[in-house]
Amino acid sequence: MGRENCTETWTVYHVRLGDSVTVTVQGPRGTRKERLNKIEDLPAMYSQMVRSMLSGAAATTDSSAVDRKNVTSGQNQQQRVRADAIWYAKLGYGATSADEFHAGPQFGFGRRWELDRFGIDLGFLNFLMYQNSSEFEGVSAGWVEIGFDYFFEPSANNTFYIGAGLSLGSHSIPGGSRGEFTGGGLQVKGTLGYEMFRASTIRLLIQLESTAPLYRLSRTYYDPATSVESTDHTYAPNLLLSLGLGWGNNNDDD
């Protein structure tokens, strides 16, 4: 066929390897080359490539070259990096300096999603039980927590990490003869930890945490001698050291 009267010349050719097809379109406005998983996607890809060349837009899934009628099977199966997903439980010891020094056992639970370098941590039901010589006399609770972790050696089996996050918590701290300090609200949290066995489906976590409430605790005390009611306030930062066990899916698993 002659090309004498053509204002534009387009060239289309294909290379097939197994079930996949590589299609190349060349024209005065550029060249587009795409790989398809199956030959049945050719009409849809022709539509995308021509639209891309005429408009100058890239042939991506969020461009005008793609619409609801020309999506290929490969575009319908987007590839994503899979994160490790582990549950964990931790047990340790903690203390606060609010209205003198109080300490006791600490425990909590959570779910963590990890990439090589970064992680997202969702904690819940984290409790620090204040204990005297004979009984528990108060508690600090982190009802729900969300944090972000940074791993210093992303490809290592064992690595240090740091983290920061926010939580919703409450406190009931003994205050001697004048009664308990209580309060609740938003808290900030910092973490320094060491995670072991990252290449497996189990993890061992050693974690030092510091939690600082963004509110003050209060108590109201009535003095019968003076018939005066007064309110005291205090802050309740916590320092926690815990050992945790994690279990779940490694991103190398099928």
**Fraction in beta strands:** over 45%
Q: Round the mean pLDDT to the nearest integer and report it.
A: 85
Question: What is the H/E string?
Answer: EEEHEEEEEEEEEE
Number of helices: 1
Major beta sheet, strand line-up: 4-5-6-7-8-9-10-13
**Which CATH class of the largest domain?**
Mainly Beta
The description of the largest β-sheet is: 8 strands, antiparallel, barrel
Q: Return the CATH topology of the largest domain.
A: Porin
Oligomer status:
single chain
**Count of domains:** 2
Percent helix among the residues? Answer: under 10%
Radius of gyration: 30 Å
Q: Report the strand count.
A: 13
SS content category? mainly beta
Report what the structure shows:
The protein has about 250 residues and is mostly beta strands. It has two domains: about 1-80, no CATH class; about 85-250, Porin. It is about 5% helix and about 60% strand. It contains one helix and 13 strands. It has one helix at about 40-55; strands at about 10-15, 20-25, 30-35, 85-95, 100-115, 120-130, 135-150, 160-175, 180-195, 200-215, 215-225, 230-235, 240-250. An eight-stranded antiparallel β-barrel has the order 4-5-6-7-8-9-10-13. Strands 1-2-3 form a three-stranded antiparallel β-sheet, with helices on one face. It has a two-stranded antiparallel sheet with strand order 11-12. The longest helix is centred in the N-terminal third of the chain and has 14 residues, at about 40-55.
